[in-house]
Design goal:
137 residues; 4 helices; 61% helix
Length: 137
């Protein structure tokens, strides 16, 4: 099963919170850290990993272009680019798996249509019977 992309995750966050991602990011900056901040952070890490994958894939494609000669100097760049690509893929997989699992566990709570009923005040406690100092025989 393919991992969700950062665009898929952004759509799911927007659906969950009922607002565009940009508005949610602005809102999260004004609030203490919470679930929204965590989801936005995970989304940001996922998007960064996807951009890194694209960058390193393009770099490798340029290095192995059929018209280029691959010498000893290029080999070190190929190995470094391959390592960085593999790291970006691993980060992407971990972030996508984590954020998808968190989002799957959450559900949007519908807005209340009317004020919730006010609970009745608790009944007063029954008076305790005074215990006599004399022991029964």
């Amino acid at each position: 099963m393919p991992h969700p992309t950062s665009t898929d995750i952004a759509d799911r966050i927007e659906d969950l919170y009922g607002a565009p991602l940009a508005d949610l990011e602005a809102h999260a900056q004004e609030q203490p850290p919470g679930m929204l901040s965590a989801l936005l952070g995970m989304h940001g890490a996922l998007a960064l990993a996807e951009r890194s994958i694209d960058f390193h894939r393009d770099q490798l494609a340029r290095l192995v272009h059929p018209e280029r000669q691959i010498g000893p100097h290029e080999v070190s760049h190929l190995l470094d680019g391959t390592r960085r690509l593999a790291e970006a893929v691993a980060v992407r997989e971990a972030q996508a798996t984590s954020v998808a699992a968190v989002l799957q566990s959450l559900a949007r709570v519908p807005a209340p249509t009317s004020a919730p009923p006010t609970p009745a005040p608790p009944a007063p406690a029954a008076p305790l019977m005074a215990q006599s100092a004399a022991h029964s025989r």
